Amino acid sequence: MSVVNLERQGHIAQITLNRPEALNAINPELAVRLDRIWHEVRDDDAIRVAVVTGTGRSFCAGADLGQMIPLMSGARQPENEWDEQLLKDPGAGGRALLRNFDPEKPVIAAINGHAIAGGMELVQGTDIRIAAPAAKLGVQEVKWALFPAGGSTVRLPNQLPFSKAMELLLTGDLISAEEALELGFLNYVDNEPMKRAMTSAEKIAANGPLAVRAIRRSARACLGLPEAEALKVESQFSGPVFQTEDAREGPRAFMEKRQPNYQGR
Predict the structure, then answer these.
(1) Do residues 29 and 3 make contact, with C-beta atoms less than 8 angstroms apart?
(2) Which of 7, 9, 135, 215 is placed for a possible disulfide with 131 were both Cys, Cβ 3.0 to 4.6 Å?
(3) Cα–Cα dist 94/240, whole Å
(4) What is the distance between the alpha carbons of residues 22 and 10, in angstroms, rounded to a whole number?
């Protein structure tokens, strides 16, 4: 088995981090492979939504402090092909965490266990989040004199109340799944996060794929913009959707009282 796996279930891509012995910490191989998977999700029109989860008792413990950080800081020399590939393309590490990369499809996080440091940053790049009750979340880089460079200083203050985001960033403390839910960072806390995530994924995959992508892109592009400017941006995304074959199929199916057959055209 690979350190990260991609399985397709209909139009759903199920991505599983698979280093349970290391709490799914991200080493060079996982970073490079996960980067490739996100590109595959983006480029395959048959994939309409992705679900990312982990094996074992952790979602992701962040960067592997024994392999990843020493390599990137120059404290150790490359030892294998994955080390070499990451050094040739260091941006792969950020893209693996959805930093500076948009898969252009909805991404659901099924947080089966702790999401810490880079694991928490990967969650921040997703659209819908379901966590197990025992999961804890946070960015602990500051405890090790490191910077949470996967986007936390940008995303976390936008996704949490500012003062709470700053508390987490500066103390390195973790919060429980229940607190994250109360803060609006999570959608649900569920004993079976993968089952709940797949239910949401199936609903999204059944919708018009071009409309889903446009809605997601518009919401993200308009985030933080003044309303007048945001409405102009929204129009750039909404207009083309109404010209698609799917936009004709949807209302026709409704009138004919049947399930629509969307083709992504």
Answers:
(1) yes
(2) 135
(3) 31
(4) 31
The pair of three-digit structure tokens given for residue 88, joined into one six-digit string: 């040739």
Among 52, 48, 50, which residue's Cα sits nearest to residue 206?
A: 48
Tell me whether residue 256 is exposed, middle or buried, using C-beta atoms within 10 angstroms of its C-beta: 0 to 12, 13 to 18, 19 or more: exposed
- Which tens digits make up the pLDDT trace of 165-192? 999 999 999 999 999 999 999 999 999 9
Q: d(Cα 93, Cα 71) in Å, to the nearest integer?
A: 12
Residue 231: partners with Cβ closer than 8 Å, 6 or more residues away: none
Single-letter code of the amino acid located at 172: G
Q: Which amino acid is at 155?
A: R
pTM above 0.90, yes or no: yes
Answer yes or no: are the C-beta atoms of 214 and 241 closer than 8 Å: yes
Give catalytic status of residue 167 as yes or no. no
**pLDDT for res 192:** 97
| Positions of E strands within the chain | 4-9, 12-17, 49-54, 58-60, 107-111, 114-116, 128-131, 136-138, 175-176, 188-189
- Contact of 187 with 131, CB cutoff 8 Å: no
Alpha-carbon distance of 227 to 140, in angstroms, equals 35
7, 29, 121, 178: the active-site residue:
121
Active site residue 178: no
Q: Of the residues 40, 84, 141, 249, which is catalytic?
A: 141
In tens, the pLDDT along 113-151 reads: 999 999 999 999 999 999 999 999 999 999 999 999 999
- Can you tell me the mean pLDDT for 233-243? 94
